[in-house]
C-alpha cells in the first residue's frame, strides 16, 4: 500500500551486488505471502529486470532470483505463465547447469512450481530442455538437490502419458529406482511419488517401472517410520496393480499383498487409502488374485477400516475393496460373510449420514449375488431395506430347495416368518423368489 514495489524496482539495477540481492529477497518474500502481492509485482514489470541480468550475477543473486520466481509461480497458472512469457524458463534451465548446488536446487524448485499447474506449463518446462538436466541433478551428491529434482520430475510426469514418457526417455527411472533404499525419508517420499506419477498412466509405463527392479525393495517402504513414505510406497504399488492381472500377479509373487495388508493394519487415516485401493484392484482382476488377497488375510483389516475410520471416502474404498473380493464366486463371498462384514456394510448403507458415494460402494449387491452362506444372510433379513432384501431372498431361493438342514433352520430362526411379511409386487422377481421358498415347505407351515 505504501508503494514499496515501485521503490524496489530500480534497486534491482543498483551497482552494489548486495543491494540487488537484498532487493530480490524482499520481492520474493512479498510475492510468497499471497497471490495479490505476487500479481502486483508482475504488473510492476519487475520480472524482465530480474531475469535479464541473471547469467552475469553471482550465485547468491541467482538463488534469490529463483526464489522470487518460485514464490510468484506457486499461486496460479496465470502467474506461472507470466514467468514463461518473460523468458524465465530459459534462465532457470541455465541455472540448472550452475556449479553451485544451491542455485541448482533453487532453479529446480521454481521449475517444479511452474510445471505442477497444468499440462501446458509442464510441456513448456520440457520444451525449455529441463528434463535431462533434472535427471543429472538427481545424481548429484547433495541430498537437497536430489529431493527437489525428484519432486520436479514428479510434477512434470503427473499430467499425461506423453510428459511421463519424456521423463522416462531421459533415463530417469533407473536413477529414481536406485534411490528407494536411501535412508533420507524426504528423498524417498519424492522418489516414490515420481515413480507413481510415471506408472499410473499406462501398462507400458508401469512395466518400465517394474523392470527397474523396484520389487521387493519397495515393500520395505511400507514398514517405514515416516507416514508419507508408507503412503507413497503404497501408492506406487497401487498404480502398478491397477493395470493388468499380470502386474498384480507379480505383486502377489513378490509378497506385496501381505506387505500391504500389514501396512493397512499398522496405520490410520488417509495413509491407509492407497493400500486399501491396492487390495481392491488386485482382487478385481481374477478369482485367483482375489483368493490371494483372502489367503494373505486381507479381509479383516478392510472390515476394521469400515469401523475405525471416520472419513467417508476411506470407508467407501474399504467397502469397494470388499465388494471386489466377494464378487467372484460363492467361496469368495463366504469369506467376506464369515468375517462379519455384511452387517457393518448394511449399517453404513442405511445410515442417513453416509455420503452418496459411500452408499453406492456399500450396497452389498456384488457380494450378495454370490453369497450362499445362509447363517450370515439371515440376520440381514430383519434389517435390510427393500433394495437389498430382494438379493438376500434370491440367494435363499437358490439354496433352500437343495438343503434340508437349512430349511429347518430357516423356520426356527424366524426367517420364513419374515418372508411372509414382505409385500412383493405380484409377478415381480421378488414374488417369484418368495414362491420358490414357500414351495419348499408344507402349506400349514407356511400358514
From TrEMBL:
GO biological process, one term: sperm axoneme assembly
SUPFAM superfamilies: ARM repeat
Pfam families in UniProt: Arm (PF00514)
Gene Ontology molecular function: microtubule binding
GO CC terms of this entry: acrosomal vesicle; axoneme; extracellular region; microtubule cytoskeleton; sperm principal piece
Name of the featured protein: SPAG6 protein
Amino acid at each position: 500500500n505504501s508503494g514499496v514495489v515501485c521503490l524496489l524496482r530500480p534497486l534491482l539495477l543498483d551497482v552494489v551486488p548486495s543491494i540487488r540481492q537484498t532487493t530480490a529477497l524482499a520481492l520474493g518474500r512479498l510475492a510468497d505471502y499471497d497471490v495479490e502481492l505476487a500479481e502486483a509485482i508482475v504488473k510492476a514489470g519487475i520480472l524482465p529486470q530480474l531475469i535479464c541480468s541473471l547469467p552475469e550475477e553471482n550465485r547468491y543473486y541467482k538463488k534469490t532470483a529463483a526464489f522470487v520466481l518460485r514464490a510468484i509461480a506457486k499461486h496460479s497458472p496465470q502467474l506461472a505463465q507470466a514467468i514463461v512469457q518473460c523468458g524465465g524458463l530459459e534462465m532457470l534451465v541455465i541455472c540448472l547447469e550452475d556449479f553451485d548446488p544451491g542455485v541448482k536446487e533453487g532453479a529446480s524448485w521454481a521449475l517444479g512450481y511452474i510445471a505442477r499447474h497444468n499440462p501446458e506449463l509442464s510441456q513448456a518446462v520440457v520444451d525449455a530442455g529441463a528434463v535431462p538436466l533434472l535427471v543429472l541433478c538427481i545424481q548429484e551428491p547433495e541430498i537437497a538437490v536430489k529431493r527437489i529434482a525428484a519432486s520436479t520430475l514428479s510434477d512434470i510426469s503427473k499430467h499425461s502419458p506423453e510428459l511421463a514418457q519424456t521423463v522416462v526417455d531421459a533415463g530417469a527411472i533407473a536413477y529414481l529406482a536406485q534411490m528407494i533404499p536411501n535412508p533420507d525419508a524426504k528423498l524417498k517420499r519424492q522418489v516414490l511419488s515420481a515413480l507413481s506419477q510415471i506408472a499410473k498412466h499406462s501398462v507400458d509405463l508401469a512395466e518400465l517401472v517394474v523392470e527397474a527392479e523396484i520389487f521387493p525393495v519397495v515393500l520395505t517402504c511400507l514398514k517405514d517410520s515416516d507416514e508419507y513414505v508408507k503412503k507413497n510406497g503404497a501408492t506406487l504399488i497401487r498404480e502398478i496393480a491397477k493395470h493388468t492381472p499380470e502386474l498384480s500377479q507379480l505383486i502377489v509373487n513378490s509378497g506385496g499383498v501381505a506387505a500391504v495388508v500389514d501396512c493397512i493394519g499398522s496405520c490410520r487415516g488417509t495413509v491407509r487409502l492407497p493400500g486399501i485401493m491396492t487390495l481392491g484392484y488386485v482382487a478385481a482382476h481374477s478369482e485367483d488374485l482375489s483368493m490371494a488377497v483372502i489367503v494373505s488375510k486381507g479381509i479383516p483389516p478392510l472390515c476394521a477400516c469400515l469401523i475405525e475410520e471416520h472419513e467417508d471416502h476411506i470407508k467407501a474404498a474399504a467397502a469397494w475393496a470388499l465388494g471386489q473380493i466377494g464378487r467372484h464366486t460363492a467361496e469368495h463371498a463366504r469369506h467376506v460373510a464369515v468375517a462379519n462384514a455384511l452387517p457393518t456394510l448394511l449399517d453404513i448403507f442405511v445410515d442417513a449420514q453416509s455420503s452418496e458415494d459411500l452408499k453406492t460402494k456399500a450396497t452389498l449387491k456384488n457380494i450378495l449375488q454370490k453369497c450362499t452362506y445362509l447363517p450370515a444372510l439371515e440376520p440381514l433379513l430383519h434389517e435390510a431395506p427393500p433394495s437389498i432384501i430382494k438379493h438376500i431372498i434370491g440367494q435363499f431361493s437358490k439354496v433352500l430347495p437343495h438343503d434340508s438342514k437349512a430349511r429347518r433352520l430357516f423356520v426356527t430362526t424366524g426367517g420364513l416368518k419374515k418372508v411372509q411379511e414382505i409385500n412383493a409386487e405380484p409377478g415381480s422377481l421378488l414374488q417369484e423368489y418368495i414362491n420358490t421358498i414357500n414351495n419348499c415347505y408344507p402349506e400349514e407351515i407356511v400358514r
